[in-house]
Write a structure and sequence with these properties.
It is built from nine helices and ten strands. By secondary structure, the chain is α/β, with parallel strands linked by helices. It folds into two domains: 111 residues, Cobalt-precorrin-4 Transmethylase, domain 1; 138 residues, 2-Layer Sandwich (Methyltransferase, Cobalt-precorrin-4 Transmethylase, Domain 2), CATH 3.30.950.10.
């Protein structure tokens, strides 16, 4: 008897941000195939009987290829297992969930979804920076700042350099200088506020406030580690006028008090 695969969004890290549907699917799993960035607290919610299969990728080090992951999901489902494919954020936002679902359906395996809070929403809620605000930002654009090895970062800079929308860049640490230059070349002001958030919603969360014309240097001088999200636009001004040092101190105080 064939099993099924549940593509589950684990959210940005805080277990309290998981949906009830995601939690139910996870607790029904025989096998949990999980990404590297799924937090330990969320993995601990898996059934004790479930087999845990880590398939996380590191930058420039994909020890488990996407094809390998597809084959693992297929093998476990064909064995009759209820497979939880646990992904950080939302499985259908830069998560390759649609690629995995297409592969499984080609092989007649049932697939269901549990959406997750994506990192942009998580960072917005933890920092208080809105992604839209009347009279400031009328829309949001999500882009990935990462490309496969050897491929050019060929984003539509003209479309992205819109001062009336908020731009959210996922996986952009390595290329943030190129991204900032592309946006400024198309007319976005160098004084545009930028917020970088590392490990959003977790106790390791770090925040950095900068500008478009200095963000590359500021990130190089910081100790930020992936995952890092960039929020670019005037909405960042709602974070207040704190200095980077004040922000770091406040985060440490928040962590100390739980």
């Amino acid at each position: 008897m064939k099993g099924k695969v549940s593509l589950i969004g684990a959210g940005p890290g805080d277990p309290e941000l998981m949906t009830l549907r995601a939690l139910r699917m996870l607790r029904e799993a025989d096998v949990v195939v999980h990404d590297r960035l799924v937090s330990a607290e969320i993995l601990a919610l898996s059934p004790e009987k479930a087999r845990m299969i880590p398939v996380g990728k590191f930058p420039k080090c994909h020890t488990v290829t996407q094809q390998n992951i597809n084959e693992i999901l297929l093998r476990e489902a064909r064995a009759g297992c209820n497979v939880a494919r646990l992904k950080g954020g939302d499985p259908l936002i830069f998560g390759r969930g649609s690629e995995e679902a297409a592969y499984l359906r080609q092989h007649d395996i049932a697939v269901e979804y549990a959406p997750g809070i994506t990192a942009a929403q998580g960072a917005s809620s933890s920092t208080g920076v809105p992604l839209t605000h009347r009279g400031v930002a009328t829309g949001i654009q999500y882009v990935t700042g990462h490309r496969e090895a050897g491929k050019v970062l060929d984003l539509d800079w003209k479309r992205l350099a819109d001062p009336n929308t908020t731009l959210v860049v996922y996986m952009g640490v390595a290329n943030i200088g190129q991204i900032a230059m592309g946006l400024m070349t198309e007319g976005l002001s160098g004084s545009t506020p930028v917020m970088a958030v590392a490990c959003a919603t977790t106790i390791q969360e770090k925040r950095l406030i900068s500008r478009l014309d200095t963000i590359a240097q500021d990130i190089r001088e910081s100790d930020f580690k992936a995952p890092v999200l960039f929020i670019i636009g005037d909405v960042v001004s709602f974070y207040g006028e704190q200095s980077v040092t004040d922000i770091a101190d406040q985060v440490q105080q928040d962590v100390a008090h739980g």
